[in-house]
Amino acid sequence: MSKEKVSVYVNRERGTIGIRSHILIMPLVFCVNRVAERIGEYFKGVSWGEYEENRVIVALHDSGCCHIGFDEEVAERIILGVSTNPNVFAVLFIGLGCGQFCTKEWKSRLYERNIKRVEHIVVQEEGYEEAVEEGIKVIDKWVEEAKKLSRRKLSFKEACDKAVLGVGNGASDASSGLFANPALGYITDYFLDRGASVVFSQTPEVLGAEKVLFKRITSSESLKSTSVREITLHVERYGSVRERKLLRKLSNIIRRAYLFKTSIAEEIGISEPTPGNIRGGLSTLAEKSLGTMYKVGEKHKLSDVLPYGEKVPRNGKLYFMDGPGQDLLSITGMVAGGVQLIIFSTGLGTPVGSIVAPVLKVTANKETYEKLQSMIDLYIPVEELIRKKKSLKEYVEEEFVPYILEVMSGRKSKSEELEQYDFSIRELWMKI
Amino acid sequence: MYDKFVIKVNEDDNVATSICNLDKGEVIGVYELQSSDFVGEVKLKTSVPKYYKVALKEIKAVPSELVERLRKYPKDSRDKVISEVGESIVVKFGEPIGFIINCDVEVGEVVNLSYLLLDEELASKLYEFYEESYERSIISPRRVTVGSIGRAVRDLNINLRAIQLRGLDLPILRRVYLTPDPLLSRVFPRCNVIGKLLTSLRRGTDVIIGNLADLDWFFVVREKGMERKDVIRNYYSLLKRYMDVSIELM
After folding, report:
1. How confident is the model at residue A138 (pLDDT cuts 50, 70, 90)?
2. Which tens digits make up the pLDDT trace of A71-89?
3. Contact call for residues A316 and A413 (beta carbons, < 8 A)
4. Contact (CB<8Å) A430/B169
5. How many angstroms separate the CA of residue B95 from the nearest CA in chain A?
């Protein structure tokens, strides 16, 4: 395949491109999970696309009722965001009838976004078995339509105009900060250079590396500050209105993350790094955070900070989403934000996937790759690169980028091969 | 070209990371990512497990008197502390990642958690926002309206008219901090925290209360003659009586 060409699903009505064309069954409350599951089971093994990459996916979760405040807002944003992801061809909402979200006008909200293939079945109105039958009927029709869809070849730059890439990391060890995250950084720059938006998340993993992020607020070359305080003073004094706003947003988010962490867990530096991180050679949270910050590349400045699950603008800029450190929740937040593809670094290895976007795993840990090849997509042979005097950037562009383009064109990622269509809704409070 | 080597990221780093298990006595190369070249070698004085850090320079332990002083005067600025413990800072990625305490680390020795222990006071200096965040949570509370404290408080005739209490009442936690925190209020809904705590905390949970007692203007006493200390005492007794929790003042 040509390096700079990708085959994608072009959705003219929505003005987006999808790299998958999944049909999503979204229960609006956990009570109807089984109904959704039964509909999904009927379509088990049904797939379409050149690589059989598109599926009927059930987004099982244990949320949707008795949320309060922030949790209600987030759950709704996630359900809506994931359902409107460009990789989704059609959505079937299943409600019970009495849940917090069951009575909302999901259909019209999706219509507003030019998504026409959407149905909403309410179990208390339809009946249990009838809801299953109705769901099967609706999806059967959509599957036939989806099978007729074809991908269109676009230049990579054209595709990037409408693409959002997510970058993340999990189960980190010392190799993540040294090689895997810098590799992600090169991929980030590669996509941003060609006009794609890129988003990263995981606020707790900024703690201790705030300076690195703060330096990305401004592109001022006169900035030679060595501390957050100096950067703050510089931006406050010389920065544009946008830069000053961004600085305050970022400061508040980081302060809150410290408070949150120290309020619910132990002292900073004790609750993180995790036992696995420590086993992998990471001794402090600062060491872990400084390593993870490499994933955002080095060329582009930060455009804005987005709330968790908020839509990421498709304007070719770098965004930070204020989300939790946990892998799946951060991935789900980004997918709700419209991310079509996620590149994820790991040291110790994780099988995590996402509900509708392929998640490509990158590792520089040889043992992890050899042991967990079935779940790791890309490996960086560190010793070989050093011996051959080959730069990481060169290696990424030669080996990783063609693979990424193939996955964008339909080739299944390892998480998809393992059917890791993971989904989870973030909750801070108990349900009352 | 060395058979075995460690990876140094930045020229300012005083530690490098091994990428394979290394034995005591081995002489290994130091490869620097910034310059993409070998910048020296080091003889190992201890064995170094894969992905662990090895000291490239001698790193002295933080003087114990400094730790003592920090405990006494925790408000010393970060820059001041960092400059004083300069020789004890572990630098990786060109940035401080921790301090060596307990004993000095020599060139070629492994640097791991047993040395790189983050003393609490020192840690708070390393993380630039930590102290600031915490201080802000104490000194700038906002008041909430009558009724948001909750029935539990009112029923007990605790004469608090306007207290802002926000805590995280997740029942899975062993400890809960009640911190007057204006930032968290943006995240969490204003709701009846005390009432929820009463119903949701597990028996035996520790509750740590922020320094409410230090804030004169934090309380509005409804009835005349009610002293601030009475208000505070009543509040603590409420928690003790109804929540069966041990209370520890911060």
Report:
1. very high
2. 788 899 999 999 999 999 9
3. no
4. yes
5. 8
Burial label for A270, CB within 10 Å (0-12, 13-18, 19+), is middle
Partners of residue B130 in chain A, C-beta under 8 Å? 258, 262, 268
- Range of lowest pLDDT (A35-44, A312-321, B9-18, B181-190): B181-190
For position A19, what pLDDT does the model report? 97
**Is pLDDT of B197 > 60?**
no
Query: A86-100, A112-126, A231-245: which range is least confident on average?
Result: A231-245
What SS3 string covers chain B? CCCCEEEECCCCCCEEEECCCECCCCEEEEEECCCCEEEEEEECCCCECCCCEEECCCECCCCHHHHHHHHHCCCCCHHHHHHHCHHHEEEECCEEEEECCCCCECCCCEECCCCCCCCHHHHHHHCHHHHHHHHHHHHCCCCCCCCCCCHHHHHCCCCECCCCCCECCCCCCCEEEECCCCCHHHHCCCCCHHHHHHHHCCCCCEEEECCHHHCHHHCCECCCCCCHHHHHHHHHHHHHHHHCCCEEEC
Q: What counts of helices (H) and strands (E) characterise chain A?
A: 19, 15
Residue in A178, A263, A382 nearest the CB of B168: A263
CA distance A159 to A195: 9
Phi, psi of B118, rounded to the nearest 5 degrees: -90, 100
Element (H, E) at A247: helix A241-264
pLDDT of residue B152: 33
B contacts of A387 (beta carbons < 8 Å)? 1
Cα separation of B170 and B88, whole Å? 38
Q: Is the per-residue pLDDT at A195 higher than 90?
A: yes
**What's residue B97's pLDDT?**
86
Q: Which of A322, A356, A320 is nearest to A338 (CA)?
A: A356
- Report the predicted TM-score, pTM, of the whole model to 2 decimal places: 0.82
Side chain identity at residue B111, one-letter code = V
Output the six-digit token pair for A111. 């219509």
**Is the distance from CB of A40 to CB of A135 less than 8 angstroms?**
no
Q: Any idea which of A332-336, A385-389, B59-63, B139-143 has the lowest mean pLDDT?
A: B139-143
Q: Closest approach of chain B CAs to the CA of A253, in angstroms?
A: 9
pLDDT at B168 over 80: no
Residues in A closer than 8 angstroms to B138, CB to CB, are: none
